[in-house]
Protein: 5-oxoprolinase
Amino acid sequence: MGTTVATNALLERKGEKFGLVMTKGFKDLLQIGDQTRPDLFDLSISTKPTLLYDLEDVVEADERVSMEGWTLDPQSQSQTVEALMQNLGDEEGAVQVGISGEVVRIFKPLDEISLRASLQNLYDKGLRGIAVCLLHSWTYPDHEKRVAEIASEIGFTQISLSSALSPTIKAVNRGNAATVDAYLSPVVRRYVDNFLDNFSDGGLVDSRRFSGLRAVLSGPAGGVVGFAKTSYEQKTGTPVIGFDMGGTSTDVSRFAGKFEHEFNNITAGIQIACPQLGIETVAAGGGSRLTFKNNTFCVGPESVGAHPGPACYRKGGELAITDANLVLGRLVPSTFPSIFGPNADAPLDLDASLAKFQRITDAINAHAPAASKLYTIDQVAAGFLRVANENMSRPMRSLTEQRGYPTSAHNLCCFGGAGGQHACTIAQGLGISLVIVPRFSSVLSAYGIACADADDIWESLAERISKLKKVVERKMQEQGVGAGSEVIEYQVELGCLYDGSDTVLQIPFTEDSNSIPADRDSGYYLGKIKQDFIATHLRETSFSMPLDVLAASIRVRGTSTSSGAGAGGGLKPKRHVSAYFEFADGGKRAQTPVYILGSGSGLKNRNSEGGAGVSKGSIIKGPAIIADTTQTIVVEPGCTAFVLNQHVVIRVGRLGMQVHLRREGKEMEVQGLRNGKQNSQEEEQEERLDFSCSIHSTDGSLVANAPHIPVHLGSMQYAVQSQHQHWLGKLRPGDVLLTNHPEWGGTHLPDLTVSPRSLLPVFHPKDDTKVLFYVASRGHHTDIGGLNIRDQYEPNLEGVVARRVSSPSCYALAASSIEQGFRELFAEPAKYPGSSATRRIDHNITDIQAAISANVRGITLMNTLFEEFGAKTVQFYMSQIQTLAAETVRCFFQDVYARFGGKPLRAKDYMDDGTLIQLEIRIDPKDGNAIFDWTGTGPQTHGNFNSPISLSYAAIIYSLRSMIRADIPMPLNQGVLDPVTNVVPKGSFLNPSGVVAISGSTIASQRLVDVILRAFNAAAASQGCANSLGFGTGGKDAFGNVIPGFAYGEAIGGGSGAGEGWHGSHAISVHSTNTRLTDVEVIEARCPLLVEEFSIRRGSGGSGKWKGGDGCIRHIKARIPVNCSIVSQRRVFSPFGLEGGGDGARGRNLWIRHDPEDGSVTEINLGNNGMVKLGKGDSVRIETPGGGGLGKLLTYMSFAYSNFTITRLQMHLCSEPTENESAFSRLIHKSRHLLQHSNVSMVVDCN
Structure:
């Protein structure tokens, strides 16, 4: 059997307490994660997932292992394992070959004595489980195994090792897998007992091998098997989306003839590295709680549970989706058994649902503006259902479109207890024309588990497939499967990837390559696999690359097929009849009101049809409800249900354009995340996701975008508009443009924008020079040539070109071939003295191709809209959603004008070099327009902090979207800026001339956002920069010789500012950047660097009623001589607090220099900008700023009684009020001590 117990426990955070063992210096690694914000425009960062463990239960194991033979160093790339073992250098520590074949160095063996003491402390606290994640244990698990032995000796009963659960590189993902397992395994173990349970990849295994990690999505996996076997027709081959809506969550999956597995999954906000069926889960089920928070309709993630359950269950429960369906007439109470109430003998209670909806409706209307129309109960309930339907639709788009499949080309298979009430509406919104409701829909997961095939997986990097088959056969026989005359069928998959990429695609062997024929040589075998990989990559990304294809793994699956499952008679109706419907009990069908969610929403009459009494082959036109004792199906208006032998099949009518145009933003997200990441060779784009995509209208103005990096998206339209004007009438289908120049809309030179003209389908049919729309991508390139280390990490740039690639506009691709001029452009910097060209031109070209691929995908998705609705209609709605954005911003400005009494909004701040940033915002209350006036801002500087004018627009767009309530629909496009007049003095550092260096992307843009938010009194200052740290070797030497080398860079998170109602977040990317931080293990595998510490800088956030977030500490050691640079801010001026809140701590950049002669250590402050040549063993320690606090914590303290000592303390506090929380804590401690030694026993006043 499968179970959702684990998934629900994870969603609701109801697992078992456990301890966590991490490598010393990395106790906060899993809390920091990849440092990104889940919701780009949520200033409170409230959606960041909570930890599964308590911080005080983290143990640091004193040990350290790292890799030898870093892959980015050209001197090491050609070395074999044997060569590495012979040339180990003089570093300390033993060296051996790990289980993956890589060479590892053990810098510090495990300190077992201190570890045992720490584990004993956890055990004495009552903990009985631990999770263990030590660095590089994926290839060297010995230390983790020893931790397990010690823990077992102490008495721990649950020990989850990351190396055993997920033996793959990336410590954060592996550590998450271990914590999930330790958190859930005890819960699952209590639940499972002696049953056989189902793995989440769709096969049966012995219950003794079932764990909390594997239990996640095990129940949903049964549903995948169930709908695959009942709803997929081999004849037509139409892929099916599985929509499994249960009580607590909804699971979405896809089947197209074979089960699709994924190895990195996000469930309940936690990235889990474990092979599973491709299932996405969202916390929206029939029991999801409905609340109204911060003027927002919220569905989940909390569940009312089975007990007490929804309000209608008669046990005093809170409102849930089930209640909304009930009050809207979308459920038939008479079909439910009388099992509710404290005695389990009463029917559903409609009155209880109505009473609670009345209360929440009154609360909502109390927050409504005076002149607005009040909501009714029906409208409120319908609003909650719309939120729930949208939440459930998003993973369906992701699961299909990110793989290159249009969502509308699928059927929707609806199952689970609540799915039938939502399927038609969701299908309409997704453009899906056919909904399938299987006979066993409400129990399909259990049915699928009964039908599941027994299987096992065994991974290996070796090419001995036959050996793996024997292992699989033995393991299956141990489970009592495949013995005797039963035949085991084997499926073999090869994990393939392009050389230089980390994206692995699973390629199944075809029939003739499942086993290597004797008459075929290895060339045939490998050639066939390579062809299949290229074809799969081309389908999913719209692009192939001229690179070697590598094999990363081999997977062998053995299957003993079960019987009795099938498609159940096909999906076509047997006959068309005029049916007279009756309930199963013989009663005639009823006519009752039902609330319709779609176009023309409101109350309408619908027919109630009894499922058991409906004859096969019947046709039911909506609005109608088909109900029996196990399921309820709502047939919306315009939809028609056909009752077949094993299914109810619903033909779905269309919704209006207002629904379909919401797909544009999602299609840009698909364009960016799937194609840009998978194809990129750059660390910046592939690992850190430093890229963005957007759609632009005929004139180049922004229509929709994928919200990846805000500073890109607000400024990309200026790049596109510049290209539009420059090339007007000159381009032809298939042309692609490249630009990065700040005066042409660029942010800084390493951000290259690729903006293709549309392919033929999006040109005017009678004029192939008339553009219908543009699609653009912008991505950061690690190395584009230059003077020193790399791009913006050079703190001493002097001019805008700075002897690097600078392109106002050029062809990157024409007639489907790379232009020679493109290569010449990247070679240009080498012509300058002391400057070198890019060190990896092949990576640059490949990344341009990846950007083109992303654009092609975006064009393909947009073409679908043009084909469906026509160019005029789509362009009309492109204009309309810009108008919607403009009107939303105008209403916001008018509200701000009223709140501030019509006064201008003013704010200022200083860059670390003393340059003033000054802003005044004047709002016109009549038309809702606003002037952002930066007059008084300091002049352009002799450095690289100057910001192109496009970035001030980007900061305004980001800030406005972040301050406008999330529940207010506001597309992020050019319309946001229509009510804004942006006054930026020419020659200021926010609008510089063409003679100074520009790198405002990660520096000035952060400071502009802080100033804008300060003017609106919206949030205290965040860390104020991106802490751009870079390392590299190579380039031109003093004699002009080009030395091969590498380049690596990262942007480091810090503290976010507090706001009214929320504390700041720790160690996170803030505001205009949201890049991922490369995993520690990946850095050390690729670069000659050793990360010695990565932790949260505790106490660096500002004090106050709402505390600022803490910064972080990043300590990196050079294993060979390398160049290092840091570009940062907030090292002089602290991140400010608001309304009496304390400032965040300033950052620090330290060079820790080891003298090669005497071994002495010297600390050198690098200031906010610095560039040094690190010797072997030198390190840099970056301490990033904290965020500012908001509101006064307290001002004074007094006591009711006093003696001499207490009176002095009272006078001290009253005369010298403190806003420093740590100082106050010391005073509290002192006062308690004094109270214990006097007759005073009561404190009466503490403010």
The first helix runs from residue 5 to 12. The mean pLDDT is 75.
